[in-house]
Design brief:
The protein is an alpha+beta fold. The protein is built from 2 helices and 9 strands, in the order E-E-E-E-H-E-E-E-E-E-H. The longest helix has 17 residues. The protein is elongated. The relative contact order is 0.13.
C-alpha cells in the first residue's frame, strides 16, 4: 500500500515526460491523485497513471550491528539479517503491522534452521 513518504520512480514514460532516473517522494494521496516532490520540484499524477507508469523504490536502512549479527530494514515490510556469512530475510504479511523485533526473531529462527540442516 502506497503511503506518504514512500519513494517511487517512473518506469514507463508518460507522454513527453521521461524522468526514468528520478526518484520521487509521495507527499499526499487522495482517491484519484498522488502528489510528490523531487529535486525537480512538486507534481502530481493520477492514481491510474501511477499504477501504469510507476513503481515503488525500496529504501533500506544501513546495516546495524547488534552483537554477532547485523540487520537492515525498509521499516515497512522487510528485515534482513546477516551473521557469519549467512543472510536471511523475513517479510511482514500485508494484513499485519510491521514489527522490527518480530522480523529479527523470524530471521534468527530461519538462520538457525539453515545452520542445523
Amino acid at each position: 500500500m502506497l503511503k506518504v513518504g514512500n519513494k517511487f520512480k517512473i518506469v514507463k514514460s508518460i507522454g513527453v515526460f521521461d524522468f526514468k532516473n528520478e526518484v520521487f517522494t509521495v507527499c499526499n494521496i487522495t482517491e484519484d491523485c498522488i502528489s510528490f516532490t523531487s529535486e525537480l520540484g512538486i507534481g502530481c499524477i493520477s492514481t491510474d497513471d501511477f499504477d501504469k507508469h510507476c513503481e515503488r523504490v525500496k529504501v533500506w536502512t544501513p546495516w546495524i550491528s547488534i552483537g554477532i549479527l547485523s540487520y537492515k530494514t525498509d521499516n515497512e515490510k522487510y528485515v534482513k539479517i546477516k551473521s557469519g556469512g549467512y543472510t536471511t530475510k523475513a517479510s511482514c504479511h500485508p494484513c499485519d503491522e510491521f514489527d522490527l523485533e518480530t522480523g529479527i526473531r523470524i530471521c534468527v529462527e530461519k538462520m538457525i534452521t539453515k545452520l542445523i540442516n
